[in-house]
Write a structure and sequence with these properties.
Layout (H helix, E strand, L loop, with lengths): L5 E10 L6 E5 L12 E6 L2 E13 L3 E6 L5 H7 L3 E5 L13 H4 L3 E4 L3 E10 L6 E6 L2 E6 L5 E5 L4 E4 L5 H6 L1
Parallel strand pairs: 7-12
Antiparallel strand pairs: 1-2, 1-6, 2-5, 3-4, 3-6, 4-5, 7-8, 8-9, 9-10, 11-12
């Protein structure tokens, strides 16, 4: 399994018991969707290794307490501590309407209500305080903050995101 075929689910943050149980901090608003999993992929040395789950339970909000097969001691748990965990993309719950996963809208055309065609969405920068659409407009980069008020419609059928940005925002990048 390759990382590009998976989505980041969270990180193994701590040991829970001396019997190898670990706690995974889930990167999701709906942790209950993931409590019945049979297996996950753990990032070990840039390889995704499948780990099978014997039992799991929700733990303090968005955390999952997990007992993996073949991880029965503190030493075994130490070996996977601080590792990222992943699931295949096809296990992502389907979103509808104007909600989307970052990976699914890359390549979409961005159209502004006032400006018209802005360009093609090439990346979403989520390292800043506010995530940004990074758009290619014939070789020029345009950044649009991902603010709910700006995003008017996500048209999956036509691979288009309709936005309404403040007047002059797009022109700042083109002049």
């Amino acid at each position: 399994m390759h990382k590009e075929d998976c989505f980041y689910l969270g990180k193994i943050v701590t040991k829970y018991s001396f019997k190898g149980e670990v706690v995974i901090k889930l990167d999701t608003d709906e942790p209950e969707l993931y409590k019945g999993m049979e297996s996950i992929y753990v990032d070990l040395g840039n390889n995704l290794v499948p780990f099978f789950i014997e039992k799991s339970s929700l733990h303090k909000g968005n955390q999952l307490r997990v007992q993996f097969e073949d991880v029965y001691s503190e030493e075994d748990a130490d070996a996977i501590l601080k590792s990222g965990v992943y699931l295949p993309l096809d296990l992502l719950p389907k979103l509808s309407g104007d909600k989307f996963y970052y990976h699914e809208v890359i390549g979409f055309k961005v159209v502004d209500v006032n400006f018209g065609d802005v360009g093609v969405l090439v990346h979403i920068n989520d390292k800043a305080a506010q995530p940004l659409f990074e758009i290619d407009n014939e070789g020029k980069e345009i950044f649009i903050p991902m603010i709910d008020d700006f995003i008017k419609k996500v048209d999956r059928e036509h691979k288009t995101i309709h936005v309404e940005t403040p007047e002059g925002l797009i022109d700042l990048y083109l002049n």
